[in-house]
């Protein structure tokens, strides 16, 4: 069965392709189906993910999976949070956002640089599904003082992953998927979907 992935973020789409490969579902990025972006005006990951999933399901007539995610830094009161994709302004690149974060944290001492990645996944069986499946994955770590590694996307180069004591960019895609916020949220979603069938 086809499943539309309600995202235009190539990093996320790559991770979903790998995470969903063993399943019966055929994930199709919304861009391939002509679905455009939607505003993400909300203050919660949950609301934004519902908006994205509903838009994609409505446009395609397919079940939809949306991911709203971000990095919450404790020393910054939870910023960039839901604004992670546009921390350095609308249309900012991953690199711009990461530089803005390092600058905002320049004076934050070691020992106070804790942060969490969050991923909220919303699965809609159809556009008007009254009971979406909503799953939340969390990944705690520490913000580095300079980028390390080439892999991943977004803030991965500055996120020190405590499980391996390396940056998220230095993990292989499989390793990251096993422990990340996205991997955890998707494992929870799969449990729920299995319980339904
Ligand atoms: P879509 O809405 O099209 O899915 P987006 O990039 O706008 O793409 P979000 O609003 O959910 O998505 O923003 C998430 C941002 O959080 C993303 O752009 C990254 O900067 C960051 N992020 C999320 N997951 C991440 C991960 O696994 N590694 C590094 N950064 C991540």
From TrEMBL:
Q: Name one GO molecular function term.
A: ITP diphosphatase activity
Indicate the family of this protein.
Answer: Belongs to the HAM1 NTPase family.
According to its UniProt record, the EC number is 3.6.1.66
How does the annotation summarize its subunit structure? Homodimer.
Q: Does the keyword Hydrolase apply?
A: yes
Q: How is the cofactor bound?
A: Binds 1 Mg(2+) ion per subunit.
Q: Does the keyword Nucleotide-binding apply?
A: yes
PANTHER family, per database record = INOSINE TRIPHOSPHATE PYROPHOSPHATASE (PTHR11067:SF9), INOSINE TRIPHOSPHATE PYROPHOSPHATASE/HAM1 PROTEIN (PTHR11067)
Give the function comment from the record.
Answer: Pyrophosphatase that catalyzes the hydrolysis of nucleoside triphosphates to their monophosphate derivatives, with a high preference for the non-canonical purine nucleotides XTP (xanthosine triphosphate), dITP (deoxyinosine triphosphate) and ITP. Seems to function as a house-cleaning enzyme that removes non-canonical purine nucleotides from the nucleotide pool, thus preventing their incorporation into DNA/RNA and avoiding chromosomal lesions.
The UniProt keyword set, sorted, is: Hydrolase, Magnesium, Metal-binding, Nucleotide metabolism, Nucleotide-binding
Chain residues that bind substrate? 7-12, 69, 153-156, 176, 181-182
Query: Which residues does the record give as Mg(2+) binding sites?
Result: 39, 68
Gene name of the encoded protein? rdgB
Q: What is this protein called?
A: dITP/XTP pyrophosphatase
Q: Which residues form the active site?
A: 68
Q: Which reactions does this protein catalyse?
A: XTP + H2O = XMP + diphosphate + H(+); dITP + H2O = dIMP + diphosphate + H(+); ITP + H2O = IMP + diphosphate + H(+)
